[in-house]
Amino acid sequence: xxxxxxxxxxxxEIKKAFQETSQVSDDLxxxxxxxxxxxxxxxxxxxxxxxxxxxxxxxGRTLYQVLGSSGKLYTCYSSCHFCTCPAFGFSVLQKSExxxxxxxxxxxxxxxxxxxxELAVSEEQLTNILLAEEEDEG
Length: 138
Hints:
Elements: H1 5-21, H2 26-36, H3 40-48, E1 52-56, E2 62-67, E3 73-77, E4 82-83, H4 86-94, H5 102-113, E5 117-120, H6 123-137
Parallel strand pairs: 1-5
Antiparallel strand pairs: 1-2, 2-3, 3-4
Helix pairs in contact: 1-2, 1-5, 3-5
């Protein structure tokens, strides 16, 4: 993964706490806000709204789609730490102001909390999702 060790550890702690108590302590929430800054609360909102869907093809290829607060669907790749939203391109890639956007953080939190929706698609459908993203950007 491409996250700093402290962020990885925090996500592990959140997963452990959630498995044991089905909630995240105030201390962990403060840590989340400290490490991930202003995207922490909106990411938690996305998790609460169950906006994260893991899209999986028979080959095992996986991507995540997150329904943003604007109603637009963004594609996230946790394996390479990338999101198709404008905030990721600007704040993370161009300005290096943030580790990630709220959509990728929502993916990581959904994984930790077992809150992902699941969608099985064919290889062709997965390819179409990937190609549609390229067309949007190009």
